Amino acid sequence: MTPPPRIVVLAGGVGGSRFVLGAREALRRRGVDDTAAALTVVVNTGDDLWLSGIRLQPDIDSITYALAGVNDTERGWGRAGESERVNAELQAWGAGWPWFTLGDLDLGTHLARTGWLREGLTPTQVLERMSRRWHLGARLLPMTDSEVDTVVTVREGGGIRSMHFQEWWTRHRATLEPVGFENPGIAEAVPAPGVGEAIATADVVLIAPSNPVVSIGPILAVPGVRDALRETGAPVVGVSPIIGGRVVRGMADVCLTAIGVETSASAVAGLYGARGDGGLLDAWLLAEEDRGLADEVAARGIRPSVVPLWMTDAAASAGIVEAALAAARR
């Protein structure tokens, strides 16, 4: 019997969650019982922050909740069936951010995580412990154990100032013009234990259709990750987060404009670059709406593959993952 492919996914955010669900479903359709042994997800931790004395890891929690089947699919974040009594009490005390809602169930996760961190566990060890509660069907790894929160520098009132990414994203809805994005301390960070080995021994590496600047960008900025991707013997296949020249969700177009990249499937492929030319990609999945860009992607030295890219449900997401695996085989 042919062993299942060892898949590594780089992911973050809601798009990453849906894509990872598709990867797990694709393995299940192949009859793989132990999908956790075949699927490793390297998760962005640039969104992380300290708030009211507790450590929040939004992307890690989004993917964990999605795999556990306890996520709020209507809001797109947090737990299903949430209440917000503790959040209301925090606001009554003037604690936290009034525009950043923490659900009671979600707070339970953050409190458990913070307690373990204060006991001396690393983020990798905390995530491993968290994964024992539910049968996730995937091995989750933070991109690094270092704290490298994303800071956004924006133009405001004729000047510039910096703020945590969550304030810019959640409070201001990315309406303040960004000048740049930084992850202080990332130059001294190292990949979390297991990340380098997973990439080196993978059969295929998939870059999820997550925000290329603030979800995938921080992962690639961890020293050693880009080298690992360039050196792995596995094909590296990316999935476009742009469909028909528009972002699918969120404000990735604002982020791309800030770094001088056009909001197009071809331009994002160029941002990652061709592995044969010192970049990362061997192949790139384009939406059917962007079929006309296939030759442009090919001219960048990246093999294009045109497929439906709308992740309407787990089945559709699994189909996208299968298309990515097929592109890897080619």
Question: What does it look like?
Answer:
This protein is an alpha/beta fold and 330 residues long. It has a domain at 7-47 and 186-329: Rossmann fold, CATH 3.40.50. It has helices at residues 13-29, 35-38, 58-68, 85-92, 104-118, 123-130, 165-171, 195-201, 216-221, 225-231, 252-258, 265-272, 294-299, 314-329; strands spanning 7-11, 39-43, 49-51, 54-56, 139-142, 151-156, 159-164, 178-182, 204-207, 236-239, 242-243, 246-247, 283-287, 303-307. A hairpin with a 2-residue loop joins strand 6 and strand 7 (159-164). Helix 1 runs parallel beside helix 3, helix 1 (13-29) crosses helix 14 and helix 8 runs parallel beside helix 10 (225-231).
